[in-house]
Amino acid sequence: MKDNKKVIVIVGLLILVLLICLLGIRQCEKEDEPLTDTPIVDTDDESNDDEEENIGDEETITEVVPTVNEETSKPTIQLNGSDLIYVEINSLYQDAGATAQDEKYGDLTEKIMIDNPVDVSKLGTYVITYTITNEDEETASVTRTVIVQDTTAPILTYQNDFEEGMIVNVDANRNASFHNHAVTATDNSKGNVTLEMIYYYKAQENDEYQLVDSMDLGKLGYYQVHYVAIDESGNRSDDTLVVEYLVTDTKGPNITVSMNGTSYPMLNPSVTVSAVDDYTNVSNFAYAWVTSLEEEPNWINVDNNTLLQLENNGDYYLLLKAVDDLGNESTFTSNLFQKDDTLMQVTNFNLHSDQTYSGVNAGIKINQLESITDITSVVVKLYSNDTLLATNTSTDKIYDLALIDGSIELSTPFIVKDGTYVEEYWTTVQNSAYSVSMKPTKVVFEVTKSNGEVHTITNDHLIEPNVFWEGNFYDYDILVGPNYGNYTNLVEAINNAQDQSSILVLPGVYDGILTINKNLTIYGLDKENTIITTTTAPVMRTVPNQYGANPVIYIENGSLSLSNITVTSNISQYNAIDGITVNNGNLTLDQVIITNIKNSEGYNGMQYGRAITAYGISNVNIANTHVNNFNKNGAHFVGTGVTANISNSTFIGSGINENAAAQNGVVYMDGASGSISNSVFSNFQYHDTQVAESYGILLYNTDAGNVQISNNNIFNNCDQNYSN
Q: Hey, is 578 helix, strand or coil?
């Protein structure tokens, strides 16, 4: 029995070994086939059952599943589409992508990593990299090159009111750069586009166009401008736009008036007149003397460089008109002239004080039409109130010297000055000749002519003789001085002055805000040293858009004639300041300096720092005036009610200041009118982040014909002239 059991065990072991061998052989034959989990089953079910049943009580048989080592695999990647792509700048670029496969892991496309630096807004060459990595850390990659290029030409279009085939009328006196705004160009690159302009010219409509270098507004005729656009990549526009311009002259001739003096009323004037046109001939030039501006003139033709003189005594205005070949007209109206060939006038008196003497010097002017030999004698008398201090009588050009109480009386011979005869009689009184209470107050000239006619000329406005002063004669009602006079304070003098008063201001500094609501004349003896200023913030005025709202001098419903004086400011705190503002009034400036119209900290407010401002119904005349060192504008005239004439004056800007608002020399705004001649405008070059334009002369919302501009020197500004 035991032997049988051993045999059964041995047979079972042999069968197991045989099965293992068979499995090994099969694995060798199918080494490339994947392993499966299917178990090996013995096909002899009954034998197995019997054997298991027989041996189950003595040993347990364990089934062994062999282990298989798999090899790693490497993925592959392939581009969709071309490996070199050209893309137009600022166009839409849609990348085609790539695909990836792996023998072991199958389709790995969704796991591709893409590095895409392409920026279609910038020209350049870009490389896109596609990378795939499988679970075995095996990697494959591929690249595509994308070139962003610009091959598209710019597109030209007309702008504003320009259109194809139109002829644009151009005033020859405007800035030539206006035609840059006829067309505009756009480009797909969104970069800078350069406009290339090709010019053609012909003098008459029926002539043939000829190629020229540029448009010359000083040459009347037809210009044809061909516009071509070029982008930064050198692409030129496919189309060429053409605009035709007709340059015409709308300005009248330039009238020049040379006078024998500058003060008004001018006595016995001689005036030399001329008229020249910038583009054509002057077909008619005429003058007329009128006693009233409402009078109908009697025009008389005149040639250039003709000397005009009044024939009859009286008050006159000189009118001039000139017309060019195109029918453009210019006119000129003078200030008041006076002719008097009989009355001689006191022209100057001087005060002296030195180691030798103190006294008063007085003189008279004899009209040039008066014969020197017609004067038989001149008696000069010096008074203190009604007390005679000294007398000098002359019957020839040497002079008899008489002694009165030890005083010395001096005279000078006839001299020729500015084309007129001047005889100055000097009467000097020593300090010992009179007491302090007997200061000279009046000088009287008694002039006797050969026919026995006697002219008495009196000046009873002498001032103290112990002050050194030499200057022209002034006829005044109120004397203002820092140490003596009717007033020491100019504000007080103005407040107490009657309408039509004349105020003489001696050298000194006069602090205060001046309000003028009457008709006044104010003049100084020394414009550099006779100074109107303020050290306190001025009164805020209600004015349009803050133009001239904080002035040192404010004129409302009155008039001011200001001469030989400096207007300035000296603000210690951070306050806005303006110079002279006129609201419904009149302003005349002659020999005036306006400077430092700003506070000490350099306030650069857009609407403050104007030296001269006028609005409402106002008339302004500026002559021989110097304006500098201000924040905003030298002169600013607003509205159709303002007429402003500027001549022989200087406006100097402050130059470049990157933190300041745009600065201008003179501005005519919203229909203001007038004239500008023989003046200088320079150094208006302010800039900031928003404004990059400053002008010597700016016409803003004002027709160019409203303002007659001639013989000015305009230089070193951002823009020289401007007309909207």
A: strand
pLDDT score at 456: 74
Please report which residue ranges of 441-598 form alpha helices under DSSP H.
Answer: 490-496
- 469 inside domain: no
pLDDT < 70 positions in the chain? 1-9, 11, 17, 20-70, 174-180, 260-269, 340-375, 384-385, 389-390, 392-441, 459-476, 484, 545-546, 572-575, 599-607, 656-661, 686-693, 719-724
The CATH number linked to 567 is: 2.160.20
Q: How many CA atoms lie within 13 A of 403 on its CB side?
A: 2
Beta pairing class for 282-290 and 300-301 = antiparallel
Residues 220/172, Cβ–Cβ less than 8 Å:
yes
Q: Report how far residue 188's alpha carbon sits from residue 155's, in angstroms, rounded to the nearest whole number.
A: 9
The amino acid at 650: T
Give dist(CA 631, CA 388) in Å, integer.
55
Domain boundary, last residue among 303, 323, 339: 339
Is residue 472 assigned to a domain? Answer: no
- Say how many C-beta atoms besides its own lie within 10 A of residue 433's C-beta: 19
Residue 268: left if φ>0, alpha if ψ -120 to 50, beta else—which one? left
Which of helix, strand or coil describes residue 333? strand
- Does residue 470 belong to any structural domain of this protein? no
Q: Which domain holds residue 294?
A: 254-339
Identify the CA nearest to 369 among candidates 312, 454, 413. Answer: 312
State the Cα–Cα distance between residues 708 and 646, nearest whole angstrom: 10
Displacement of CA 401 from its chain's centroid (Å): 64
pTM value > 0.90: no
Q: Supply the pLDDT for residue 3.
A: 57
Res 659: pLDDT: 55
